[in-house]
């Protein structure tokens, strides 16, 4: 159930002590709901927060019937209290949600996008790797690196030089006929669409150095809200061109991913 305000002592507000999910709704029904629930529960377990009940989570989208696309954001915090970083003796986790209308950018599906490499490097922390916790300061700082509308996203590497993700999307590449995505056991967010594509055995986790991204055969960004964006141009953090890719006649990633989301494949 949506809460109109957050108390000053809420630990999610004070410390980022919580998790969140951003869920695509189509005609009032959640897309990839099971994957979102599993990731939220995994995040709660890692942070040792008592998770919401299945009924409470389902109530966030089981409202009056709607038509079209929406985005539902769910936030779970540990609740209020505690002394400093110490958690309260008895925590009362707080569940909040909001749903808003949404229109996907179909031009990005067909025309592709231009992206840049970010100078910020992600810190490794295996205990937080994969989950969608509320502390996203690295992503916020990375997104401040550009204001020009020429770039739709920025690519992030970790402090070992391995590519991890974009600021708000997962990364995929094709090399020698194989589609791969970064291994996210040290940092980064394991997206729900990414999980579904791995389960479908279309995508394999692998490692790729940030310096090698320009050499791949194809590059994509994707998440469970925006769908799959082919990358048509890659730029350095200083604004120098690195690589351009032509539009493919057939997009194997969109062909599998978009039906999972209810979106059309564009080629």
How is this structure best described in words?
The structure is a single chain. The chain has helices at 11-15, 33-47, 54-58, 106-111, 137-143, 192-199, 252-261, and strands at 18-26, 29-30, 69-77, 94-101, 113-122, 153-158, 163-166, 170-175, 178-182, 203-206, 218-223, 227-235, 241-244. Helices cover 21% and strands 31% of the residues. It is globular. It has 267 residues and is α+β, with helices and mostly antiparallel strands. It folds into two domains: 11-103, D-amino Acid Aminotransferase, Chain A, domain 1 (2-Layer Sandwich), CATH 3.30.470; 107-260, D-amino Acid Aminotransferase, subunit A, domain 2 (D-amino Acid Aminotransferase, Chain A, domain 2, Alpha-Beta Barrel), CATH 3.20.10.10. The strands form two sheets. Strands 5, 6, 7, 8, 9, 10, 11, 12 and 13 form a nine-stranded mixed beta sheet that branches.
Helix and strand composition category: alpha+beta
Count of individual domains = 2
Reported for the largest beta sheet, the result is: 9 strands, mixed
Unreliable residue runs: none
Q: Give the CATH architecture of the largest domain.
A: Alpha-Beta Barrel
Radius of gyration: 19 Å
How far from one another are the termini?
40 Å
Keywords: Folate biosynthesis, Lyase, Pyridoxal phosphate
EC number: 4.1.3.38
Organism: Vreelandella janggokensis
Pathway: Cofactor biosynthesis; tetrahydrofolate biosynthesis; 4-aminobenzoate from chorismate: step 2/2
